[in-house]
Specification:
heterotrimer; A alpha/beta (about 350); B alpha/beta (about 240); C alpha/beta (about 300); A: about 350 residues; alpha/beta; abc type-2 transporter like fold; 2 domains; 4 strands; B: about 240 residues; Rossmann fold; six-stranded mixed sheet; 9 helices; 10 strands; about 40% helix
């Protein structure tokens, strides 16, 4: 079909001519992946620890050694009891471990039952403080108490690397961004420029023109999918134990769904700015807040858990976690796949019904 | 001897290797209606922006109401009024709200704004429409109101960029009567238009082509000079010679 | 061959909420005719175009193009018409050539097949065919838009304010092109706010606030003006304006370029009037009877 090919060519030209946007679209997945993978993480690293040591004993030496050898802590040296608080305040240390003079003396030999060590933590970031305190406690307990603590095995993500968790979320976000937002803005731009009027007054069914519009964005999404999967595997070292074909298949479905959403937005908006605002309010915020990308769905109030069921990204991200992190076979994400398929059909039907070839 | 309000010498604006305005020089006297004509792309808008203090010339010099366009752009902005076909008033504010807003922008006091607003509404016979949203007024009314608002702070010069585009012929003439009144009151009017009959209303007309001023005189003298019956013919003769498209 | 009208409009009415954009508008455009809709912004011209190009449904009355109903047969109409909307309706980020071939593809054809039809116009912008449409001057954009509307050989052309914001020279050239298209047998409905362009049409309709004020050939409208129009000039033009308006028996006086136009019923004695105001102190007064122009007709009909 000669006509259709020339429509696709026109859309590709639009994208290629808008260099800045194209560059952003192509680089964004990589930047987001690296940001979330390395810079922004919920792990607590580099905790500066100082110690107050009234009396050096073998036990104190061992405890300090464990602290300096631990990758999460940086040992900053000893301070006096008086300076303990001021070195927290000045930021010299995040935590100060105060040893009692009789630290390490076996319990049966002690005269009182007061604790022999105190941890002072800068809790201005309560999250870091909590996690850090937990680590520090473990380190101080040392071998003697380790036996008494339950052994927890973190399955699927043994190092608790938060980067893994973010990858499906980033994918859920990026495809909405490219397919839904960019497609709708590009359709609405034609309304705003007056070219839509000319397109409508032509024998070509406008729907065909709009399908032609979706193809380049579909291709862009494929490039991004490849970038993300390669980065996840080789830069973040994700296991990708499950079926790669399943990941690709699920993603393709989600991309089509996002394109349908874009078409739907374009039927309700008539200004580019409106399309952007609708997309941001109806798509980005829910994807970020309610899809489980950042906040676990299990922790939400029931009403929000219910709402999250209607957010496609939730099912997509769930499915991806199973495939990419847990390494389950495709059959295990059949539920997610079917839900997304039904949603796609519904949105497609709704937007095609709303789309008309008149101005009113 | 009347005062010179706009004076421009060898004014030039280049964008890269493209010379939009090429060494133009002219003077506009107080109370004149100065028509600034030219084909699309001749450099009118660029020249007008420099006079309004919105962009700096690449070379040359000029003064508007006594202020240097190189150094005193901000002062010039306070001394001039500006109205264009595209942007003039806020459609989602009422007539009074628009007037108050402009009063505020140009630093008129509350009392002064109120006085001038009432005078303006009476003069335009707009009293009954004072709380109407500007967006729901007919275009002709809007343009008349926009002109009055642009001269609310009694500027020495008022710049009008195609003020009558798309307006019906009757309103267009009423609009020009307002311009006459303002000019008679000492306001200098600098106006661009695509209607050639409006060029005949001007005291003097300059016609730009390819970034230069090709003709500048009274309409009667220009018609004599070019052996033409109307300003339309004068304009065509000049525009046809232009090379730049 | 059967004589058929290219466009027929009967009692067409369009409302937006409480605003009546078109109020029982009727006219027809013959085959191969250039028909002008002359009126200011907000007169209802664009609504009329959108109904005829099947983008809007009317609230009352009917419209047909090439004998096809604008509502029932809209798909067929879309194959046969070319439309140039009022706004800049090209892709600014595509080149001249890319725009034209896209619009050709839209109708399942190519530039080469129809080159002969657009050649007189396209040849003027062809040297710039690699330039982005957004970087063209107003006159060139307008030529390109016309080529794009023509590339599929429509039999009826709808041009909504094609000359607005374009300089006088380019406007003249544009009308010359329309003359050429009429010779190819294309019927053209064109709107403009510029009264001086009325003379370039075969017939015109004056339209204001959704109503047709008059339909005729430009000459017919002017001939139908039943009052005298005088050109008045003098040294004190604004003083003259006020003085003439105060005179009884004068139905209108307004500035018209370098002179004033005075409209007075038949029997008005211009010579006596000039003598009278000269005696009142007006110097250099001259007044002569001239024929009415389209603007005089429009102003008079607006006042009714």
């Amino acid at each position: 079909m000669k006509g259709f090919a020339s429509f696709v060519k026109k859309e590709i030209l639009h994208i290629l001519r808008d260099r800045r946007t194209m560059l952003i679209v192509l680089l964004m997945p990589a930047v987001l992946m690296l940001l979330f993978g390395f810079a922004i993480s919920t792990e607590v690293n580099n905790i500066d620890v100082a110690a107050v040591v009234p009396k050096r004993s073998e036990e104190v030496r061992k405890a300090l050694e464990r602290i300096s050898n631990n990758p999460y802590f940086t040992y900053k040296g000893t301070v006096s009891q008086m300076d303990a608080e001021s070195c927290l305040r000045s930021g010299f240390a995040d935590a100060v471990v105060v040893f009692a003079p009789d630290f390490g003396v076996p319990a049966e030999a002690r005269t009182d039952r007061r604790p022999k060590v105190q941890i002072m933590f800068d809790a201005s970031n309560s999250n870091d403080a909590q996690t850090g305190e937990w680590y520090l406690r473990g380190v101080l307990a040392g071998e003697s108490l380790a036996a008494a603590m339950p052994e927890t095995r973190m399955l699927y993500n043994p190092q608790m690397k938060s980067a893994y968790n973010f990858v499906p979320g980033i994918m859920g976000l990026i495809f909405i961004l490219i397919c839904a937002i960019m497609t709708s803005v590009s359709i609405v731009r034609e309304k705003e420029n007056g070219t839509m009027e000319v397109l409508l007054v032509s024998p070509v069914r406008p729907l065909r023109i709009i399908l032609a519009k979706m193809i380049p964005y579909f291709l862009l999404s494929c490039i991004n999918l490849a970038t993300i999967m390669l980065l996840a595997r080789f830069a973040l070292g994700m296991p990708m134990a499950g079926s790669a074909a399943g990941t690709v298949g699920l993603s393709m479905l989600y991309v089509v769904l996002a394109l349908a959403l874009g078409l739907f937005i374009s039927t309700i908006a008539d200004k580019q700015a409106t399309a952007l605002i609708i997309s941001a309010m109806l798509m980005l915020l829910p994807v970020i807040m309610l899809s489980g990308m950042i906040f676990p769905i299990e922790n939400m109030p029931e009403i929000l858990q219910f709402v999250s069921c209607f957010i496609p990204a939730r099912w997509y991200i769930d499915g991806l976690r199973k495939l990419m992190i847990e390494g389950l076979p495709f059959a295990e994400v059949m539920k997610e796949f079917l839900i997304l398929l039904a949603m796609t059909a519904a949105i497609m039907a709704m937007s095609l019904k709303k789309f008309n070839d008149k101005l009113e | 001897m009347t005062r010179t309000v706009i004076s421009v010498r060898e004014l030039t604006k280049r964008f890269g290797d493209f010379t939009a305005v090429d060494r133009i020089s002219f003077d506009v006297r107080e109370g004149e209606i100065f028509g600034f004509l030219g084909a699309n792309g001749a450099g009118k808008t660029t020249a007008m922006r420099m006079l309004c203090g919105l962009s700096y010339p690449t070379s040359g010099s000029g003064t508007v109401d006594g202020f240097d366009i190189m150094r005193d752009g901000e002062k010039i902005k306070r001394r001039i009024g500006y109205m264009s076909q595209r942007f003039s008033l806020y459609d989602d504010l009422t007539v009074r709200e628009n007037i108050r807003l402009y009063g505020g922008i140009y630093g008129l006091g509350r009392r002064q704004t109120q006085e001038r607003m009432e005078e303006l509404l009476r003069r335009l016979d707009f009293m009954s429409e004072r709380d109407t949203l500007v967006g729901s007024l007919p275009l002709g009314w809007k343009q008349k109101l926009a002109f009055s608002v642009a001269t609310l702070h009694r500027p020495g010069v008022v710049f009008l960029d195609e003020p009558t585009g798309g307006v019906d012929p009757l309103t267009r003439r009423q609009f020009w009567e307002m311009i006459y009144e303002a000019a008679a009151g000492g306001t200098t009017v600098f106006v661009t238009t695509h209607y050639m009959d409006e060029a005949e209303y001007c005291s003097r007309v300059s016609i730009m082509a390819d970034g230069r001023i090709r003709a500048l005189d009274t309409p009667a003298a220009l018609k004599r000079e070019f052996g033409a019956a109307t300003m339309d013919d004068v304009f065509r003769k000049i525009a046809r010679e232009a090379k730049r498209i | 061959m059967e004589e058929r009208n290219a466009i027929e409009v009967r009692e067409l009415t369009k409302r937006y909420g409480g605003v009546t954009a078109l109020d029982r508008v009727s006219f027809e455009v013959g085959c191969g005719e250039i028909f002008g809709l002359i009126g200011p912004d907000g007169a209802g011209k664009t609504s009329l175009f959108r109904i005829l190009t099947t983008l809007l449904a009317p609230d009352g009355g009917s419209a047909s193009v090439n004998g096809l109903d604008s509502v029932a047969d809209y798909r067929q109409i879309r194959r046969q018409v070319g439309y140039m909307p009022g706004r800049f309706s090209l892709y600014a980020d595509l080149s001249v050539e890319e725009n034209l071939s896209f619009f050709a593809a839209l109708f399942g054809t190519g530039i080469r097949e129809n080159y002969d039809l657009v050649a007189p116009i396209y040849s003027q912008i062809e040297p710039f065919r690699k330039r982005r449409a957004g970087k063209l001057s107003g006159g060139m954009k307008q030529k390109l838009a016309l080529c794009c509307a023509l590339i599929h050989r429509p039999s009826v052309l709808f041009l909504d304010e094609p000359t607005t914001g374009v300089d006088a020279l380019s406007r003249g050239e544009f009308w010359d092109m329309l003359d050429g298209l009429r010779r190819c047998g294309i019927s053209i409905l064109v709107s403009t706010p510029y009264m001086d362009e009325a003379g370039r049409c075969d017939r015109i309709a004056l339209i204001n606030e959704g109503r047709i004020l008059g339909i005729d050939t430009p000459q017919g409208l002017v001939d139908g003006f039943d009052e005298g129009v005088y050109e008045l000039s003098g040294d004190d033009m604004s003083g003259l304006l006020a003085r003439v308006r105060a005179e009884r028996g004068i139905s209108g006086c307004y500035p018209f370029g370098a002179v004033h136009h005075v409209v007075a019923a038949e029997g008005f004695d211009a010579v006596a009037f000039v003598a009278r105001i000269a005696a009142e102190g007006f110097s250099g007064v001259s007044m002569q009877c001239i024929g009415a122009g389209i603007e005089d007709v429009f102003i008079k009909k607006m006042g009714r």
